[in-house]
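Step 1: inspect the first sequence and its tokens.
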Amino acid sequence: MELTLWVMLFLLGAAFLAGFIDSIAGGGGLISLPALLVAGVPPHMALGSGKLMSTLGTVVSLTLYARSKAVDWGVIVRGTAFALGGAYLGSVAALHVNPDVLGKIVVFILPVIAAIVLSPRRKNHAPKELSPLSSLFRIVLVCTSVGFYDGFLGPGAGSFLLIGLHIFLGLGLVAASGTAKAFNLASNFGSLVAFLINGKVLFAVGLPMAIANIAGNVLGSRLAIRQGPELVRKVLFVSLGLLLVTLLWRYYG
């Protein structure tokens, strides 16, 4: 790839938008990963560099949610290890896939993600009071499965976490978004470690994008905390709309 000024500006803009969207409703990878691929970054390098960017951005977003008490620490304590383990295993699996094949997986998986998240929401969520065993089972199920997906591919994992916590554990949208950040951070970190060990992080791209991503996370987190569930819901649909536009432009234009 040729890292020109225009390519870098394009990636910085994508990183800022990804941070803004990710901090509110998850799914920032739906913007950053396609942008990296469009810029010519090899699939494995795109995944690794994206993890560096999103890990740093998520730290800032989680801090802002925590300060506003929009985080369920009880859920986090019980689920972080499962998200971390799932992400590491997913990343190891991804490293054994041919880059060309991985690129094709991105093409075919992202529309499936969009279809799932855009499907009608269930009106009846999980019971408000869950038994300790039922609660633990739901946490393990959500964190391990989404963590593995996040490590293997990434895009949309934040949205899956938010929706999973909202539906299966009955958390409000803002609390689900804030709590999801901790799990997202754990899975991002586990994935990042695997990519670093295997030399799949392009620092010249990942670090500048991380700065832009942090700025987007700050703006998005503050707006979500201030405006509440309606903004979370709207941005979730916006992120999926942007995903569809990106796919059409990149692969069918």
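Step 2: inspect the second sequence and its tokens, then contrast the two.
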Amino acid sequence: MTPVLPPEPHSNRLKRRGVAGLCLALCLGSGLALTGWRANAQTVSPSQATQALVPAQSEITFVARQLGVPLDGRFKRFEAQLAFDPKQVARSHIALGIDLGSVSMNPDADVELVKPEWFNAGKFPKASFQSSAIKALGAGRYEVRGQLTIKGKAQALLVPVQLSQSKGLTTATGAFALKRLDFKVGDGEWSDVSLVGNEVQVRFKLTFTGVPPL
């Protein structure tokens, strides 16, 4: 059983752990509920079933603020499943799962962010996002509606996405803002938004093989 240490002075904890707080909100929120995706897989064509994420050319990053200072972070491990047909956008789906234990900001923050008051990665190892509707806006632009779940808290999310294609690969890029307190990320004393900002900016680049020409 891990011993419980007495609480540190608030100022020391802020220096050591404050960075961690910023990241929490990110959960890119873009996690994909893979179980839900599989439930919808029967509606996709064989060509869609071959679509796959290229991890080496994909990234999920975020920017949080501590005492007004921006801090950059990223998630090193995530997975995505896509069933996308440009001719049948309404029947397309995307799902994303993010390993919360892979959060990376700096050594001290990385240790703190997985703890219960932040991501609580031991109990909630992944954030998930499951699309419910995709709408084409023209010129490779889309709106993806769905549900983002972090620490057991679900919120509706609207994500703008830009698609581009080159050399057989399709890349989806976009950005959106999350409020960490909607998911109880940075709970307790860290709920003070004057220390760690409530809003977190999330950016993503997801590259896939097997997507038909747009």
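Step 3: confirm your contrast with the notes below.
The two ends are 55 Å apart (CA to CA). The mean pLDDT is 84.
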